[in-house]
């Protein structure tokens, strides 16, 4: 892919038919590179990652179609990504951990960590003030915690917690290594599809991207009103989700309609975060989503991975080329600086570290009380 310089040409579409054709067009344009699975079907497009030795035309076509989907929907499946075996290993180790007694799991409680790392039992996290029904371990980049760091969001730097007598540390480290390479490649396609140099976003992440990941278990409920995690959007640039192949529950909000994103064997579900919505002036979407496990007998397991900028990165708005046509109503600045989650009150901050800390602070009040009671959130996030 190196050496590509010219910008893609994107076909113009009449604004009068934009909204009604949004999902159907996205499905049609990916048909040549998409596959379905007997385990599930979805209205979301399904992409196959091109081989590295694919032709230049194939790489460019993939980039154009990918960006169009990111503009219209903000969610898609990705197959042939090369992380399948590593993901299976993490899922297997995750299921072994969650089968342990609560006492054993609490040995790595997140309340031990001022950097929000570790095990969270059912009910420990909330979304928009509503308790989430899932248990999880939160991981990030390994580091040394410094309470006296010059800026408050550097408190997110710290060590991970891993369970004893488990292969999870090795599995997670290998998974993160592979996901780093995959995320950079996907971002290079997004850059190319936006008419930018394919390495445009590299300085955003550099050698210290603030990646996050979780292993999650959503217990069976059978309830149609109880959510594993409520409506929200993600804070960074790119989110890549491993779902087990047994139990669905992920739902995506497209044109104010909730659609299912069931598991498709071997795929990742990919969506965009608030930072990339902001830097593209709303051209790319941080789409709200939620999880609801309505299975009455089986748990749902997943591994969300978040490809985020450096903590100190501040968004610079991109002047996009005229060739990029808006196929939905263009955003006002007020709109693209917020997302539809949290009842439309989710303000997006230009500094990624502030945006990330905002999300942790409102979702984990107990950690804030134990470790960060000296911070005045109203002062930090007044706008």
By DSSP (H or I, 4+ residues per run), the number of helices equals 11
Quickly give the structural class. Answer: alpha+beta
- Largest beta sheet, briefly? 8 strands, mixed
Portion of residues within helices: 25-40%
Question: In total, how many beta strands?
Answer: 16
By CATH, the architecture is named Sandwich
Strand content: 15-25%
> Any idea what the shape is?
globular
Which CATH class is shown? Answer: Mainly Beta
What would you give as the CATH superfamily? B-lactam Antibiotic, Isopenicillin N Synthase, Chain
Radius of gyration: 20 Å
CATH topology: Jelly Rolls
Domains counted in the coordinates: how many?
A: 1
Mean pLDDT: 85
Q: What is the terminal separation in angstroms?
A: 42 Å
Provide the low-confidence segments as ranges: 1-40
Helix-strand sequence: HEHEHHEEEEHHEEEEEEHEEHEEHHH
How is the largest sheet built, in terms of strand order? 1-2-12-9-14-7-6-3
Could you walk me through the main structural features you see in this protein, from its secondary elements to its overall organization?
The chain is of the alpha+beta class and 383 residues long. The chain has a single domain (15-380), classed as B-lactam Antibiotic, Isopenicillin N Synthase, Chain (Jelly Rolls, Sandwich). The chain has 11 helices and 16 strands. The protein has helices spanning 18-29, 56-72, 84-98, 102-105, 168-193, 202-205, 274-279, 333-336, 352-363, 365-371, 377-380, and strands at 46-48, 75-79, 118-120, 126-127, 130-131, 135-140, 212-218, 229-232, 238-243, 250-254, 257-260, 268-272, 289-291, 300-307, 338-339, 346-347. The strands form 4 sheets. It has an 8-stranded mixed beta sheet with strand order 1-2-12-9-14-7-6-3. Strands 8-13-10-11 form a 4-stranded antiparallel beta sheet, with no helix packed on it. The longest helix is centred in the middle third of the chain and has 26 residues, at 168-193. The protein starts with 17 loop residues before the first helix and ends with a helix. 44% of the residues are buried.
